[in-house]
Each structure stands twice: as C-alpha cells, then as structure tokens.
Amino acid sequence: MKSKLVILILLQFSSLILSEVKLPKLISDGMVLQRDTKVNIWGWASAGEEIKIDFLGSIYSTSANDSGEWNVVFENLESGGPFTMNIEASN
Q1: Which of 46, 78, 85, 88 fits a 20 to 30 Å CA distance from 5?
Q2: Which H helix or E strand runs over 14?
Q3: Which helix (H) or strand (E) holds 2?
Q4: DSSP calls for 39-55
Q5: Structural domain range at position 74
Q6: Residue 7 belongs to some domain of the structure
Q7: Which band of pLDDT confidence, cut at 50, 70 and 90, is reported for residue 2?
C-alpha cells in the first residue's frame, strides 16, 4: 500500500517537472502571419506559468490559465519580414 502511494506521488511531481511550453504545429519556423488583422499566438504550459513573447521590438506577457492554455493577440501587423519571434517561459 505504501509503495503505491509513493509511486502516485512521484508520478504527480514528475508531470510538473516535465511540463514545458508547447505550441500548435501551425506556429513554427517559416510561418506566415496575416497582415492588417488580429493574429492569435497560443499554446500550452503549466498552469500559472508566465510566457513572454519578444516580437517586432515589443515584449508581450501572459500567463497560462488553470487548464494550461495561453494566448496573445497581435493587432494590425504590417507586411514585411522576415521577422523573429521568441517565446520564453520558465523552462
């Protein structure tokens, strides 16, 4: 009985340690963003984790909700590029 409890506790902690920011396959190297409209960048992380996006000389911050989902909206992007977008979190 004790060994099952220990295994259960270790599994819960390992999921916290192994969590990482994840992005949908649409968000990747070489992606093309629509200009003159709202553009959503989203993903998943640990609940409450802070995410920072460095894009076009500005830093956008958000936090993952209780389900681990996060979202940032860029508005009225101009044409041009290529541009670099860096997405950072605690891991």
Answers
A1: 46
A2: helix 2-18
A3: helix 2-18
A4: EEEEEE-STT-EEEEEE
A5: 21-88
A6: no
A7: low
